[in-house]
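Exam revision sheet. Question 4 asks you to relate a sequence to its structure. Input first:
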Amino acid sequence: MLKIQEIRELIKLVDQSSISEFEFEGDGAKISMKKGTLKTNGFEQPESVQHAAPAPVVEVKTESAPVVPAPKVEEKKPEALTVVEDDVNYHKIVSPMVGTFYKAPAPDAEPYVNVGDKVKENTVVCIVEAMKLMNEIEAEVRGEIVKVLVENGQLVEYGQPLFLVKPE
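Answer key, structure tokens:
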């Protein structure tokens, strides 16, 4: 199914091009766009009578079940990261995948590491859950944890910094 942003991009491309008609069918959806005529009260008027260039007429049909709006979920906006002295002097432990960050092996367990803890290259610092698999993330550097950059249970992206470590 096409996303609304993709449909908007298609409309913009058709509007800016010289084509007058466009059809797309796939992923359970059919999109039909036409431009160049303006319908007023059911009668088509030629372009010379129009006062402004019309936007393409878009018709979207889907073959799937009706869309039920998802329940609203409050998004936690990440707080602005505060720079600890000059963070270029610190090693960043980054997420090797997209997933959910967990600072402890279980909800009632102690975190793997806290600010001020000394870590070695093979010290497990957190878990990133991806596709129901718990992936232990190691420090990969010897040093001291200076800052935890993400919240427990937060979604993280590939390459997103998780911790700042002051190397030894």
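Marking note for examiners. DSSP finds one helix and 13 strands in the chain.
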